[in-house]
Structures are given as structure tokens and as C-alpha cells.
Amino acid sequence: MDSSSKQTQGYDSVQEFIANNYTVYDGGSEFLASATPRTLAIWSQVKELLAQEAAAGVLGVDTQTPSTIISHGPGYIEKEKELIVGLQTDKPLVRAIKPNGGIRVVQKAAADYGYQLPAELVDFYSKHHKTHNDGVFAAYSAEHKLLRSKHVITGLPDNYARGRIIGDYRRMALFGTSQLIAAKQADLEKVLTTGSPVTAKSGVGVVATAAGAGTVEENIRTRQELADQVSALQQLELMGKSYGCDLTRPAENFREAVQWTYLAYLAAVKQQDGAAMSIGRLDAFFDIYAEKELQAGTLDEVQVQEIIDDFVIKLRLVRHLRPIEYNQIFAGDPIWVTLVLGGSLVGTDKYPNSTNKSLVTKTSFRFLHTLRNLGPSAEPNLTVLWSPFASQGWQRFCAQISIDTSSIQYENDELMKPYFGSDYGIACCVSAMRLGKDMQFFGARANLAKLLLLAINGGKEEPMLLDSDEANDMGGELIIPGLKELSETEFLDYEQVWGRLVELMDWLAQRYVGAMNVIHYSHDRYNYESLEMALHDTDVRRLMAFGVAGLSIVADSLSAIKHAQVRPKWNSAGVAESYEINGDFPKYGNDDARVDDIAVQIVQEFSQALKRYKTYRNAEHTLSVLTITSNVMYGKLTGATPDGRKSGVPFAPGANPMPGSETKGALAALNSVAKLPYSACMDGISNTFSIVPDSLGKDSVSRETNLMQILSGYFAAQGGHHLNINVLTPELLIDAKLHPENYPQLTIRVSGYAVLFAKLSPEQQDEVISRTFHTHV
Amino acid sequence: MSKNSIETSPQKSQFGTRLKSILAKEIKSVGYINSIETLGALDGPGLRSVVFLQGCSLACKYCHNPECITPKVGRTYTAQELCLELLKYRSYWGDSTDMYAGIATGGITFSGGEPLLQADYIQQVSEQLAKHASKHSLARIHLAIDTSLFVPQFHIQQLLNRIDYWMVSVKHLDTQAHKFLTGQGNKHILRNLEYLDGQLAAANRVKSLRLRYLVIPGYTDSTSYAADFVRLASSLRSLDSIELLAYNSHAKTKWEMAGKKFSFGGIPDATRNQLELLAGQLRAAGLKVIY
After folding, report:
1. Cα distance between residue A529 and residue A532, in whole Å
2. Would you call B89 and A668 a contact, using CB atoms and an 8 Å cutoff?
3. What region does A472 belong to: left with phi over 0, alpha with psi -120 to 50, or beta?
4. What is the value of ipTM here, to two decimals?
5. For residue A776, what pLDDT is reported?
6. To probe the interface with A, which of B62, B85, B86, B89 has the most A CB atoms within 10 Å?
7. What is the spatial distance between Cα A382 and Cα A13, in angstroms, rounded to a whole number?
8. Strand A338-342 and strand A280-281: pairing?
9. Chain A, chain B: beta-carbon pairs less than 8 Å apart
């Protein structure tokens, strides 16, 4: 029944279009063109605006007009100079409001920057229109609310939009809205409102229920969603018209291909302010159009690069209105315009000769080159899909750009291909999805360190350091009732604690899945991503992405309990306020099986626990080991742990070992992280690697070569999933903290994205500075 | 320093025949390892895992690894244990059999301390590594050593065919200055260097020797040394390159951490310019210089 996938409009055809038409590029970076005077002129105008924004927090808020695809007329930086057009509002960097996620959070965000929403607008969204946030809190259980307020589960998208859905924006350029609308309308007509028997259809690793084969209620929901999708495409067509683009037809040349694709993405970021609004995979697709024009002589390299540069400038200007406190979990105003580059084809029956053929094209180089032409930047979130089948020229260029800009992250293509094929994108940091074929229900993360403390403390909250000057909070509030006391021993007993932790993982998994079901039911109902979903197949695979924080702390704590002696110091509320450790114990991050195996067991156990509980829309459970920047906040809100970590000390980011625990150098740390099984953590395993340039080699060529070697060792041999590469010195960061004015473009990689260092809070800056910088004298 | 001075040095007893056999027997069973740096990009070609062995026969005033000076302390590893530990990082070293051909081959570097003081142990480790490589039909693992050569000659002989790349730290060319800086004159070292180079050259192993030279402002950076250095380097037939290292005062912290008094204070760090100046003179003589 699925016209949008079975006919020419479907995902198969974008992939086929690429596989049949692209030109792999095996050479080096010497062909690249510098920025043109036009590019430099417009970029300097933009930089001026960015500086004003940095000083003011936001450059402007349109409080009057809730944003939709067509809410705002066309906006320009300087119309005559722009090659790729389109802004979210009438003016660059002016932020729009999107109250469907929740009106209160928008009100707060506006107020944080000194803006006030019109009373009638607040009134409308409070009294006459139910938001996602209202829906969630109406359906949350008391336990859900408790776990949320006690920071056991944190960062859930229950008062902001979920994001992490990647429209296949290329479909806009390849087909035009007329074909896309016709396909969706055809799909709609096939869904019966009487329902029909369920038929199982096999997806990649999952059984998806074909749309239209569900219950009456499910089918009516599908019909409404399809109608919304059609309407979104019609609005996109109108928005295109306002910019003078006839989107009803496919793009006819390179500039149009970029423009059409961008307008589709722009429509998405006008409609939605999801946590991560990623853009997918464009390099080989765009390259086909570029190559055609280069061959025909209608464009030269300078012009092609100029269009890419202009497109990237637009991506650097995307903004959402966020409350200041949002910065704690997602610091630095990120959009996650994640753009993957490179990778390779999967061999299929259809393309037997294409097995593992590199997908690196000249346009892959052109995108990385924007970091030189325009300088380093946090957005778009450039993500290289590391492939052993890519040329040395490409790998070396990536290494060069990493060393120069610290703006790239790498993910293991060979690890993801078996799950996601060769036409997937990355949402946010590390979440893979087949473009137009998978979508995700994003679910932040559970604080496993806190769960361990609940296990030790019989389900009662641990004491916490509220503030260095104040008395401690004694803890003791019962969060998980009905637990039998652990038998009293002087030192914590490994078997007992582990057994209890496993039991609590199951307990938490049930509530976590339950809360996620509520959230995504409400989001589908009150804040549906009709434009993004219009650029998906009608019948999509849904992934429900859970997450964990504090993995290294839990692994080290259990290792201490197992290999050393850990004596809890109980306070008057009957909970442990600190832990005394006698003896030495192996720490995660040293490639030591005695503790690394514990880390592996933890993620496997939690992944299995989650899978025991039924998800909304039969989504497939996935898990990430990722903290974004919330590792600082998690640390603040978590008491002392049995690994010797003091109350309030930041967690390590993502799957990283705790700073200071790595005694054998960087490769041992990489090997430890690489042991975490992707099969249990299909939503990604984030690892941030920071090294001082001088420690990477004596000269630029050896630095590049050594970095290539680190990457290939980590990915190809160890099977690691993700690596952020920072090549800089802590001294530079300390100076940047003191003199931000000297470092307007200093970009660093944090957990799964890049951020302008100056946009981090002082605490987050300190945490980044205190991380392990691999150095060797 | 006269030939005799080495005989009368405090190290004499350590090199005495009687003690030697005892030492050899003991060292055979285990190695004393201070630490392992799995990511070494500065200690030999390519990416290397570096083993810092315990014990040193010199007493350099500015030693950057003072924690490695005392022999036979710290953690012990059998040869097999060390091999298993090191082989975990094999995939990062690169070799001609992997798909990333063209990348400089890294491997393992033995450093310290003076690694040659545990030559028997290193020999066992290298045998184990070779066995592993042949068992798995893998290319031989590239081994480098970072040594002062202030050791009995037979230790060098023992490892001649085991170590692929020899990095010899020449502390000073003037024997008095050498004695001032390290507690020992340099005659024995220079003799060993000549021996090592002769053996490598005879085996046609060109480019398997590197001289490492620490540039200490006011001590080792004068232009007249450059001429001496050129003379020495030009005489070596197996020489690959000269590596200039810049003195920095980070060592002080490490001495203090090791509970030792640092007596070499007040020396400024060597600058990039100073290195460039010296490098220029060496390059003018047709030598390959890295820094």
C-alpha cells in the first residue's frame, strides 16, 4: 500500500539515484576553491550579527507570530548577494516562538531575554489549545513525576519538542512537491477506517506494522497524519513561491538542488524546534548535480564551492528560542544540524558491483572545506562516517581539518551499515536512522549512578551536597518502596549490590518506558512533525531511544566494591553519605577486563530490561551512552559514589572514563570504550577524545598520519562507534575562558556535537578544561 | 674522561661479572616496569606504545623521568604478561598487512630509565612478540629503543637483531660537561655508539639509528657543539635522523612528585628558535633533523 516507498517517490529511489549516478572521488584536497569575495562579504555581515547576538543573548524574538511553515514572509541577509535563500523569520537570527511543545516554556524563554508574549496568545495556548506539555502531564503517573523531579530520569522531552527526526530533504529536490503530494494522497486513500487484519512486514531487524493494517483507531490516526503531511507539503510549496522557487517540480540544476533541499529543511525548522533538527546526508546527492554542471561547463569549481558555502552560512543561522536553563542539558544553543559525510555503499543484489564502494565525493570535501572558507563553527554538526574504503586523500583531509578546527566528529560506518544500510543519517550526536525510513522517539537518559545509590540505600534518596557553604541535604526520602533490606555487612558485597542494581534496572525500565510512551503519544497528537514525516515513507520503522548517564561511575563503583573494600558511612537518615575505600581497584579506561566487563554487563542488562516493556506504536527499543553536556548537571545532582567520587562532581561525558582514571594513556581508554557493544547500544556510544597537538606528532604530516591511525585503529580494529576529536591545549581553553573576545570562533567537540567554547557556562568550561587531555612528555 | 674512569665509576660493581650473572638471573623472570603509555607519537616512527622500564645507570640532573631511576621497584610483568598487554594496541600501530597501507609503521618503544639494563627481559619480550606474529601470520612488530648506551656492550650485542630502531640520547659531546650533567663521562657511551653503528652498518641496516639531543640553554646549545655534533653524526653509517628535544622545566614537578630535590633549577626552557638555529647548522651538513 505504501506508494511513497514503492513508487518512484520512495527512499529506494533516492538511494538508487545516488548509487546509479554519483562519482566517487579518490583524490586529495588540491582541487578545492577558496571563498569568493561575495562569500567573504556576506559572511562578514553575518559575523557582525553573530557578535551582536553573542553580546545580547538573542538578537530578537518575534513574540507575535507562532511559527509555521508559512507564518513568516521571506527573509534575507542581503537579497542580491545570496545564492541560497531562506530564513526562519523575516530577519536573520530573529527567533520565532513555537508554542505547540508547551506555552510555559516559551513564555519563560522569552522572559529570560526580556521579551513578553502577548496576553491573548498565552491565553489561547493555555485555555483553548492543548500543547504537548499539557498532554504529557495529564497522563504522567505520580511515579513518572517523582523520578523526573528526583533526577533519576532527566532531560525528557516533555516540555520541549522531541526532535531527532530527520526528514529526507533530498526528496524535495529529486521529486518536487507535486509528486510527493500525489504519493501521500494515494497512501491516504488506501488506509481503511474500518481497520484490517494485522500483517507483519519485515524491516531491518524489526517487524514493522504496515500502515493501514492496524486497528480502527490506528488507521484513523494514520489518515489524519497523512492529511497533515499533505498539508505541510502544500505549505512548503507556498513558502517556496514566496522565495520565487517553483517547488512543485524537481530541481533542475545544482543550485536548485541545494535550494530545494534547504527550503524543505527550512520548513522543518520553522514548524518544529525539536531538540535536534538534523539534516541527513547530502554530499553524494548534491555532487551528482554539481558534477553534471562541471562536466557541461555551466559551473566551475569556484561557483560550486560558493553555493555550498552560502548553504552552510544558512545552516549556521538556524536558531530556536530556548530558556536559559535549557543550557544545562544542551549547552551552547545547539541545533544539531548534523550532516554526515562519506561512508560507503552496501552491496545488494541490485548493485553487486557497488559493494563497499566509497561514497566520498568532491562535495564531501567541499562541506569540510567550509570550515576553512568560513572558519570553524559548531554548526552544521559535521560527522564523518569513517570507512576503511575511503581514500587516503579523504582520510588525511579529515585529519587535517580536525587538527586545525576541532570541529568534526567521526562515526564507524562499518559498524552501522549492517543495521542501517548505506543511506542513513545521524540525528543529534550518534543516533543513526535510515533516511526517510526510520524515525525516532527521543528519550534522553536515566542516571544510572543515582540508581546504584538507590540500590545501596534501600530505595531511599542519597544525601547531596547542596552548596559548598551550606549544610548537606540528608537524603532519606523513599523513592522506590518495598525493597527488602540488604543484609548488613561492614563492606558492600558485590553480589548483593549487583543483584539489587539489576532488580532496580528492571523496576526503572518499566517506568522509563511508560513515561516515554506518554511523551510520544502526546507529541504525535499535539505537536506532530508533519513536514518531516511527509519526507518519510508512510510506513516507517520507529525507534524508541533510551539512554544512560554515569556509566563510568557505576562501573568504577562496582569494581571498587568487587576488587577493593568499600565501607559506606551511614548518616542519621540511614543512607550512605560517603564511602571509604580500602585498597586499589581497576578503573574503566585502562583496557582492563576486570572492570570493562562490568561496564559491558551494565549496558546489556539495562538494554534487556527496557526491551521487556511494550512501547507506543511498537517502536524498537534502542539505547545510547551519551550525556550531551548534562554530565555537569548530573554530577551536581548526584551524591557521593562508591568509586570515591565526591558529591556534586561532574560525570564524565558520554561513555568516557572519569578524568584521572586513565593511567595507561589514550589508546587504553579508547579500547575500554570500544568494548561497549553497539548491538545493545544502537542509539550510539559517545566518546570524546582530547589531545594536545604536540603530543600527536612532531610535524603536521605525522600528526595527520597518527590521527588517521588512531581513527582506523579505534573503528576498524576495535569496533568503536563514535569519536569526537579535539586537538588543542587546556592552556588555550583557560585563556579563552578569561578572554572570550579573542576567541569568537573557538569551537570544541563536546559529547556528540560541537559548541562555541564561549557559549558554555563557566562550570561547563571548567569541566571541559578538567577533562583528560592526552599528553605525553 | 679516561678509559679508567668508567672502571672506577660507582657503576663498576653493577657491571662486575659476579653481580652481572645474579642480575641476569633475576631479571630473566620478570621485568620492572614503571608505566606504559599506550599512545606514544613522539618516541620513534609512527604511533607507538611506549614501555618505561625501571632503573637507570646515569643520574641526569634534569631527568624527565625521575620516577624511573631506581632499579627493581614498581610493578613487575613477565614477558608474556607484557606482550599480552602491548598487543592490545597492535591495531593502532599499522603494518603492511592491514588495509591502511601507506601509513608509517609504528610499534613498541622501550624507554625508561635505561631499558638496556633489562636487556634479557627485553629479549624475552621480543621473542614472544615474534612468536605471536608468526603464529598469526602477521608482519613482524617494529621495536624501537630509547637508550643512553651507558651499559655494558654485550647488552647491545644481545638486542642487536631484536631492536629495529635505535634511538640514542647523546647528552653531551664534551666528557667533562657530560659528567657534570649526568654523573658520568661520555667515553664509554661513544665507544658503544661506534660499536652499535658498526654492527648496524655491517648488517646493511641503514637508517636504523637516531640520535636524540636535548637542547639545554647555556649547556648544550652553543654553536661550537654543533660542529662537533656534525662530525659525530657524519661518521655514523646507519644514521637515519637527529631529533632535537627542547629542554623544559616540567621535570621539576616530576622530581618533586617523586619526593626528590631538583637541583637543576633556573634554566630557561629551550625555544623553538634555538632548536631551529641548531637544526639549520645540522641540515647544512646534509643531516636529517626533526624536532
Report:
1. 5
2. yes
3. beta
4. 0.89
5. 57
6. B89
7. 25
8. parallel
9. 94
Find, among A408, A342, A332, A411, the residue nearest to A372 by Cα: A408
- Domains of chain B by residue range: 32-213
In terms of Cα–Cα distance, which of B32, B46, B15, B203 is closest to B125?
A: B32
B255, containing H or E segment: helix B250-257
CA distance B49 to B40: 5
Question: Which residue in A245, A398, A429, A681 is the catalytic one?
Answer: A429
Give the least confident one: A6-15, A366-375, A676-685, A742-751.
A6-15
Instruction: Compare CB distances from A665 to B38, B46, B64 and report the shortest one's residue.
Output: B38
Q: Which of B65, B84, B92 is the best mutation test for A, with the most CBs of A within 10 A?
A: B92
Would you call the peptide bond into B266 cis, given omega within 30 degrees of 0 as the criterion?
A: no
CB contact under 8 A, A697 and B41: yes
Q: What is the CATH number of domain B32-213?
A: 3.20.20.70
Hey, is the C-beta of A596 within 8 angstroms of any chain B C-beta? no
Say if B252 is an interface residue toward chain A (CB within 8 Å): no
Task: Give the phi and the psi of residue A696 in degrees, each rounded to 5.
Answer: -90, -15
DSSP A345: P
Question: Cell numbers of B168, please?
Answer: 640514542
Distance from CA of B197 to the nearest CA of A (A): 25
Measured CA to CA in angstroms, residue B43 lies from A383, B52, B93, B109 at distances of 31, 11, 13, 7
Q: Where are the alpha helices (DSSP H) in A713-759?
A: 730-738
CB B142 within 8 A of CB B106: yes
Using the predicted structure, report yes or no on whether residue A349 has a pLDDT greater than 80: no
The residue type of A755 is V
Contact A264, A229 (CB under 8 A): no
Q: Are A46 and A82 in contact (CB under 8 A)?
A: no
Q: At what angle do helices A283-296 and A301-316 cross, to 10 degrees?
A: 150
- The beta-carbon neighbor of B94 closest among A664, A709, A774 is A709
Question: Any chain A CB within 8 A of the CB of B253?
Answer: no
- Provide CB contacts within 8 A for A437, sequence distance 6+: A5, A11, A536, A537, A540, A541
Known catalytic residue: A398?
A: no
How much is the pTM? 0.92
Query: Tens digit of pLDDT for each residue in A588-622?
Result: 999 999 999 999 999 999 999 999 999 999 999 99
Provide the β-strand partners of residue A632. none
CB atoms within 10 A of CB A743: 17
Q: Chain A residue with minimal CA distance to B289?
A: A698
